[in-house]
Amino acid sequence: MNYIWDLVIRAHHAGVPKEKITFALAKTYSPYMELSNENLNFRQVEPRVEINPYYRFYEIFKDLFNINNHEDVELRNTLLDIAIHFLTDINLIQGMNKTEYYQRFIQSEIQRGLLGPEIQAKFGLLTEAEQIVVTENYYRLLITGEMLYLLKDTVRQIFKSSTIYVNYETTNELLFFIACEKSDLNEEKLALIKELFLPLKFSTLTYWKDHFGVIGMDETMKIDNIALY
Fold first, then answer.
1. How far apart are CA 33 and CA 209, in angstroms?
2. Taking 60 as the threshold, does the pLDDT of residue 214 lie above it?
């Protein structure tokens, strides 16, 4: 990590709110790096982060820490922290495109319950990465209307190594094989996906962990590991 926005993103993924991070002027720093931790290969986010504010923002901070000024040091340190947090927020949105803005709006609307309290509650059970998957595919659904494809794609991203089959012997039936343990949490996640992406005319059957037997597919024909259809 070298940039403040990189650190804040890492902190977000680790569940550390950016408000818990304090930026401070490093006692010693490299002119070629923005973050100035003693360990250059650090991976964990610390509550206090030392930086070189002159790396990208020299014009803003050039007079804030004049070596001949020994007054109001605490105030100036606080101003640095506030300003760096503000600049970080700008950094974080500079790389966003129009699609990402729409996806953020959709995520916010779901979290505020505009798609209903049940979807709101289930959405809250997802991890941040899973919420992004659902939000991105729901946006694609609004644009393309490809419900079945996006249903399959969402299930495969949330539940790794899972598969959805179409039962051609029964009209409009889908068979879900979810390659993980059945649990209340996983059932709620799958229910959310079906509520958002499953076409109304389709019925579903779900198999957890154990695949139903398929003749000719050895991996599905293991004794004591075959689900009955």
1. 48
2. no
| Residue 73, number of CB atoms within 10 A of its CB | 11
135/27 Cα distance (integer angstroms): 43
For 3-33, write each residue's pLDDT tens digit: 888 888 888 877 888 888 999 998 888 888 8
The token duo for 81 is: 């922290």
Q: Return the closest-CA partner of residue 198 out of 133, 147, 144.
A: 147
Residues in the chain: 229
Pair 109, 118: CB distance under 8 Å = no
What is the rounded distance in angstroms from the CA atom of residue 177 to the CA atom of residue 89? Answer: 42
Task: Output the pLDDT for position 159.
Answer: 92
Which runs of consecutive H residues, i.e. helices, occur in the chain? 4-13, 54-61, 73-94, 98-111, 117-123, 128-144, 147-158, 184-197
Q: Tell me the angle at which helices 184-197 and 147-158 cross, rounded to the nearest 10 degrees.
A: 160
pTM above 0.70, yes or no: no
Following DSSP, what letter does each residue of 4-38 receive, concatenated? HHHHHHHHHHTT--GGG-EEEE-SS--TT-SB--S
Beta strands 48-51 and 173-178, pairing class: unpaired
CA gap 28, 13 in Å, rounded: 28
